[in-house]
Amino acid sequence: MQTLHTLILVMFILCSSLGSILAQTGPTNDLQNLLEAKKSFVTNPGEDDPLPQWNSVNINYCSWTGVTCEDTGLFRVVALNLSGLGLTGSISPSFGRLANLQMLALASCRLTGPVPSQLGQLARVQSLILQDNNLEGPIPAELANCSDLTVFTAAANRLNGTIPAELGRLENLEILNLASNGLSGEIPSQLGEMSQLEYLNLMENKLQGLVPKSLTNLKNLQTLDLSANNLTGEIPEEIWNMSQLLDLALANNGFSGSLPKSMCNCHQLKILDLADNQLSGSIPSSYGSLKGLEQFMLYNNSLQGSLPDSLSNLKNITRINLSHNHLNGPIPPWLGKLSQLGELKLSSNQFDGSLPAELFNCTKLLVLSLDGNFLNGTIPQEIGNLGALNVLNLDKNQFSGSLPQGIGKLSKLYELRVSRNSLVGEIPLEIGQLQDLQSALDLSYNNFTGDVPSTIGTLTKLETLDLSHNQLTGEVPGAVGDMKSLGYLNLSFNNFKGKLKKQFSRWPADSFIGNTDNKQQGLSPRSVVTISAISALAAIALMILVIALFFKQRHDFFKKVRDGSTAYSSSSSSSSQATHKPLFRTGASSKSDIKWDDIMDATRNLSEEFMIGSGGSGKIYKAELENGETVAVKKILWKDDLMSNKSFSREVKTLGRIKHRHLVKLMGYCSSKSEGLNLLIYEYMENGSVWDWFHDEKPEVEKKKKVLDWEARLRIAVGLAQGVEYLHHDCVPPILHRDIKSSNVLLDSNMEAHLGDFGLAKVLTENYDTNTESNTWFAGSYGYIAPEYAYSLKATEKSDVYSMGIVLMEIVSGKMPTESVFGAEMNMVRWVETHLEMAGSAREKLIDPKLKPLMPFEEEASYKVLEIALQCTKTSPQERPSSRQACDSLLHVFNNRTAGYKKL
To answer: Could you say which residues form the signal peptide (predicted)?
Structure first.
C-alpha cells in the first residue's frame, strides 16, 4: 500500500512538472515573444525596472506582472495589461506574434515610436488600448485585420497621417477613440460601415473636409465627438436620425449654414455642443423635442431670431450657453420652468425688454450672464431668490432704477457686474452681506448717488472694486482703503469730497482722478505718484543688487568667453552687407527662404508699430511677408567682440532642428554686422501668450478672455508639460529651457500651447555679455525662478519643472506669481499650499473667478492640477517629479476630465 501511495505522489509531481514545462516551452512560443518584447522597453538610469519579473530566469511567464494566461491548461497568453506602469521605449512587433492575445493595454505610459503594423496579426484581439503615450507616425492599415476588435483607443498621442479607410472593415468595433493627435485629411466614409460602433471620438486633430453622411448609418452610436478640427460645410441633416445618440460635440470647427431642422429621432440626446462655428439662421423649434437634453451649447456662432417657445420642454437642461450670436427678442418667461437650470449665458446678443419675473424661479442657477444686450427696465427685488448664484453679469445694458436691496440675499455671489447701465439711487447697504464676493464688484458707468456704504469695507475677499463714473458724494470710507485683498480700485469721476485717509496712498492717482473736491489727507495725488515711484525704484535697485551679485560670481567665466571668442571669424564679418543664413530649407514650414530685406520691408526696418512683445533676450516683431506668410522676428544685438559667430550659428542651427507640436518652431535666422543685429525667425502664434490672456488688459484681449474656459486651460497645461517633457527626455542631449513663464507659452489659432524661447538663454549666456538689449537674459524670470538657483546659479531640469509648476498655478488661479494678494510673508507656492488644505470658500479662492462656477468634475480637476503644481514646486529639487512624471499626471487628469458625464 505504501508503494502505491509513493507511486501516486511521483505521478502527481510529474504532472505538475509537465504543466510547468508546457508553460515554459509551449507551442505558442509566448515566452520567447514576451522576452523579445521587453527588449523594446527602456529603463532609464536611476529608475527601477517596471517589469523585474520579465526575465529568462523566471520563465513561469503566467505569473509575470500584467500577464494573464487562459485557464485551459495550455498556458497561452490572452491578456497583457501594462497600463500605468511608466514604461518607456517603444511597442515591440513581437506583441503581434502572441496568437491568442485578446487584450493589449499599454495606456498612460511613456512609449514612443510607431504603432507596429504587426499588431494587425492579432486575429483574436478584442481590446487594443494605446492612449496617453507619445506614439508617432500613421495608424497602420493592417489593424483592419483584427476582425474581433471591439475597443481601439489611441487618444492623446502624436499620431499623424490620415485615418485608414480600411478600419471600416472592423464590423465588431464598439469604441474608437483617436482624440488629441495630429491626424489630418478627411474622415473616411468607410467608418460608417462599423455597424456596432457606440463611441467615436476624433476631437482635437487636424481633420478637414465634410462630415461624411455615411456616419449617420451608425445606428448604435451614442457619442460622436468631432470637435476642435478643421471640418467645414453643413452639418448633415441625417445626423438627427441617430436614435441612440447621447452626446454630439461638433464645436470649434468651420461648420456653416443653418442648424438642421429635423430632430425627430434624437430623443435621448443629453449633450449638444455646436459652439465656435459659423452657423447662421434661427434655432429650430424642433429642438424642443430633445426632452433629455442637459447641455445646450451654441455660443460663438451667427445665429439670429428669438428663442423658440418649444425649448420650454427641456425640463432636464442644466447648461444653456448661447452667447456671442445675434439672437434678439425678449428674455422668454418660460425659462422659469427649467427647474434644473444651473448656467444661463446669453451674453453679447441683441435681447431687449425687461427681465421676466419667472426667471427668478430658477433657484439652482449658478451663473446668469446677460451682459452686452439691450435689456431695460428695473432689476427686481426677486433677484434675491437666486440664492445659489455665483456670477451675476448684467453689464452693458439699459437697466434703470435702483440696485435692489434683495441683492444682499445672494450670499454665494463671487462676481457682481452691473456697469454701463443707467442705474440710479444709493448703493444699498446690503451689498456688505455678500461676504463671498471675490472676483469683482463693478458698478461703474451708472448714475449712483449718495455716500459709499462703509459695509463695502467688510468684503474681505474682494479683489476688484470699480465705482468710477457715477455721481457718488461724501467721503470715501477709510475701511475701503484697508481692504488688503483689493488688487484694483477705481473711484474716479465722482463727486467725492473731503480728505482721503492715508491708507489710500498705495493706490495711483488715476484711481481718484475726476473728483475735484477730493484731496488726500497729508498726501496729494502728486505725492501718491511720488511715493509709488520711489517704492518702484527701491524694488528695482534691490533687483539690480541681486543681479550684480550673480554677475560677480560669474565674472571669471565671462572673461574666458570674451578671450576665446575672437578665435572664430564670422562668416559675415568680411562684408558690411546683411547676410541670410537659413537654418534649413523650411519646406512645409515656409513658402520660401526668408531674407534680411524681406524682414526689413515687412516691419519698416523694425518699426515700433510692428512690435508685439519684448523680453530679456530682445524685442519681438510681427512680419507679414509678401508671400503671404506671417512670422515672428526676435531682435538680438550683435556683439562682435564677445560673440563667436560660428558658435552662435551652431547653437541656433541645433535649436532649429527641434520639432514638436508643443514647441514654437525656429524657422531660421538672419545676421547683419553693419546693422549690429541678429534676427531669429519663428512661426507666428496668432493668439499671443498665456500671460496676455490672463494679465493683459487691452480691450481686444479682454474680449477673448471670455472663451478661455476650463477645458482650454487644461489643454494648455498638458501642452506645456508635453513640450517641456520633449526637451528633457526626447532630445539628445537634453535641452534645458531656463526661462519657463506664462509669456513664453504661446497659443496658436486653435489655442494649442507652444513653448517658446527654449534653449535661447543658453545661447545668449555663452555668446553675450551683459550688453544685450536687456541684461536680464540670465536663467529665469522673477516669480518663476527655483529657490536653489539663488545660491547655485545653475539651471537644471528640476528648475525647469519648478517654473512649469508656477505656470500651472497661474493657469488655474489666473494670478501672476508676484501679485500683492500673496502678501509680504507668502509667495504663490505657499498661498496655493495653504488654501489647498482648507475647505469650502477658502479653498475656492484658488480658482480663477472668471472660471466660476465650474461643474463639480471640473472643480475637482482644477484642484488636481494644483496638487501636481505643488509637487513641481517642492523646495528640494530631489522631491520634484521629472517633467515626464508631471506630464503623465496631467495627462491622467486630462483624459479623466469628463468622468461623470461622458462615457470612457
So the answer is: 1-23
pTM flag (> 0.85): no
Q: Which residue has the higher pLDDT, 443 or 50?
A: 443
Cβ(474)–Cβ(453) below 8 Å? no
Domain boundaries, given as residue ranges, for the chain: 378-522, 525-553, 569-684, 686-904
3-class secondary structure per residue, 723-744: HHHHHHHHCCCCCCCCCCCHHH
Question: What does the alpha-carbon distance between residue 342 and residue 256 come to, in Å, rounded to a whole number?
Answer: 29
Element (H, E) at 827: none
DSSP 8-state code for residue 689: B
The residue ranges of DSSP E strands in 186-259, in sequence order, are: 199-201, 206-209, 223-225, 230-233, 247-249, 254-258
Q: Report the DSSP pairing between strands 67-69 and 88-90.
A: unpaired
635 is in an annotated binding site: yes
> Residue with C-alpha cell 518584447?
37
378-522 and 569-684 agree in CATH topology: no
**Class (C level, CATH) for 686-904:** mainly alpha
d(CA 552, CA 676): 27
What are phi and psi for residue 777, nearest 5 degrees? -75, -10
Which of 161, 115, 163, 122 shows the shortest CA–CA distance to 145? 122
The class of domain 569-684 in CATH terms is alpha beta
Q: Does domain 378-522 have CATH number 1.10.10.10?
A: no
Residues in the chain: 904
Least confident stretch, 306-320, 422-436, 723-737 = 723-737
Q: Is the peptide bond before 380 cis (omega within 30 degrees of 0)?
A: no
Point out the residues that are catalytic: 739
When pLDDT is averaged across residues 862-874 and rounded to a whole number, the result is 94
